[in-house]
What we know:
It is a single chain. This protein is an alpha+beta fold. A 7-stranded antiparallel beta sheet has the order 14-13-12-11-17-16-15, with helices on one face. Strands 21-20-19-18-24-23-22 form a 7-stranded antiparallel beta sheet. β11 (372-379) and β12 (385-393) form a beta hairpin. α18 packs antiparallel against α19 (665-672). It is globular, with a radius of gyration of 29 Å. It comes from Buteo japonicus. It holds the Pfam family FERM_M. Keywords: Cell adhesion. Belongs to the kindlin family. GO terms for molecular function: integrin binding.
Amino acid sequence: MISSSEYGSHSWELLVTVDHQHEEVQKEFLLRVTGDLHIGGVMLKLVEQIKISQDWSDYALWWEQKKCWLLKTHWTLDKCGVQADAKLFFTTQHKMLRLRLPNMKTVRLKVSFSSMVFKAVSDICKILNIRRSEELSLLKQSEDILKKKKKKDKNSKEPVTEDILNLCNSPVSSGLSGSPGFYSKTMTPVYDPISGTPASSTITWFSDSPLTEQNCSILAFSHPNCSPETLAEMYQPRTLADKAKLNAGWLDSSRSLMEQGILEDDQLLLRFKYYTFFDLNPKYDAVRINQIYEQARWAILIEEIDCTEEEMLIFAALQYHVSKLSLSSEAQDFTCESEVDEVEAALSNLEVTLEGGNASNILVGPFGSQNCFHCVKCIDSDEPTWFLIFLQRFITKCIVLKLFLIESAQGEPIEKLNLKGCEVVPDVNVAAKKFGIKLLIPVADGMNEVYLRCDNENQYARWMAACVLASKGKTMADSSYHPEVHKILSFLKMKNWTMSPQAVSDPESIDMKPECFISLRYTKKYKSKQLAARILEAHQNVSQMTLVEAKLRFIQAWQSLPEFGLSYYIVRFKGSKKDDVLGVSYNRLIRIDIATGDPITTWRFSNMKQWNVNWEIRQVAIEFDQNVSIAFTCLSADCKIIHEYIGGYIFLSTRSKDQNETLDEDLFHKLTGGQE
């Protein structure tokens, strides 16, 4: 019954459904409220009416019709727009979620369904001991991929059983303050170099963490490879349109899980979204390195990224080596790696940096002169021509490629090309003694292509390293030049293998299944014995590597592929009558012909002035230097995903090691959030 005083007031009844586990207590409650009652007052009145003694601190109000949380408890109902027809749910903010990790293991843990995805991923990574959480995000698989998987599972004779690692007792995922050990600014924990778990002297810092030594081993070690039958059943993109489907389901980092239709105990994929792996350190990043390795490995196996036959064999050899070490007892020997004192390492890096920044050495190149010069064959027309080429740095800090005809190296060059912002693509076949470098140099109407052909491995390594640094606006005097040369030479050495007689007779190699390390395209092309022999040949050059070295070398080889880091989307450019594919990378956008797969135009982020989104017509507009403007609508996904990619990569480019792993979350949301 309503009293006369209540009847004459401006009060009204509000229906709230409570999500609790007490079957004997009703779940729907009618509250008499007024528009000036704040959200906190509504929750207090509701709890008093429920009359159940329990901890309600994790509960909040969810507005079903508007798909939003009412988290600002000081706001009134009128300010929130809540009226009598609203249906509110009083439910927990932290709920169970299943996450499929890059290594195909599934973990089950509590995640905040009310926090923005960016913050939720940060909390997840703290639980899993993964640094640099800003590189990861959550991906919801598209309906087409799920339908194909369900169809294959239905045709399978054996039921699919999934081994789930349960981390539901995590203090972080429960909404409580977790152990500060992972990210403590005053106490830096020491980790075992292989497993990534805290060393015995600091293990007490992690006593409340669900990531025990056994669980950490599951995340930090690669486990036996899947069977060829399992690999054959996985979704494998055949075309650019198929690859575009893989990237359509990224969640909006500026909205919560609940706002995006994610329900309790749903399964999402935790993946590295941004391909800029900052500050990889084997001492602290065992889990992170392994998960990057696993994501790279599966990208190779299901042919999400293309590679040559020679490269595929190198990847297979590294996988085989990692698999052997992961199963052997040697991988458990934590004393095999000597730890470098952090202070000495920092002083050493400082010394190298200071030497590299010396004014007298600023133009010293790999050939011992003030400028980098050498004779290479430059092909930019139908006829190859020998040029004497200079790489010279000017006051403007741009690296210029000067081309002289070999007969007339004096006087003015016939052409000058600014290499800052260019794309450097390797074109190497060690067996055929082919060492080429393709330079895609941005100009106003697209890209100029210049091809450099080197005589041998050493010349190629020096020029490749010089061009890579030049594209970043750095000279060969930079401290990273010589490590880059060494990395390239090491990679070339892996490709140049010779057959060892004892390799085939190795008893451990008899049971090797090459189908576990090679994509289906090549397993159909060769017999199993042929593949096994060729993998063992390639394995000779990597057999002395440690487990972490092999994983890092695999990641480096993956990063050297021309298509590395490209996320594809089907778009329609303004003024065009046909669809194209847009490739989004960490430093550029590429327009690709959807029929042939050939790149049409490339635009560098370094030349971008501004970008914006017309949310009404879902159109992305970008303005570059030299009065170049483009606009497009995204057909295979929401345009917000591309907008977030661009802003996210720009945000990640601002990171530096002196930030002590603290991120400007507000800046990220300003660059990626949009104004819908």
